Target: YdgH/BhsA/McbA-like domain-containing protein
Amino acid sequence: MKNLKLTLAALTLASLSFGSFAADLVQSQPGDQQKVGVITVSGASDLTSLESSLAAKADQAGAKSFRIIGAGGNNQLHGTAEIYQ
Model:
């Protein structure tokens, strides 16, 4: 029971802190942010996992937001996004 409480507390804290630092997906460049680079990912099986992979990479780069500028592929998808700070 004690382990369950600790696990739930840890998951709650992790989800709160993750949400506060996650890069936002945008449709156009935010007016108050500057483009700081381009990221790419490959090997995604569907569009949802491609978006998640790009979001994770944008977070790793310290971006506040990202905009997907290209996606393609047959069985394995690849995507490109601009990142903003």
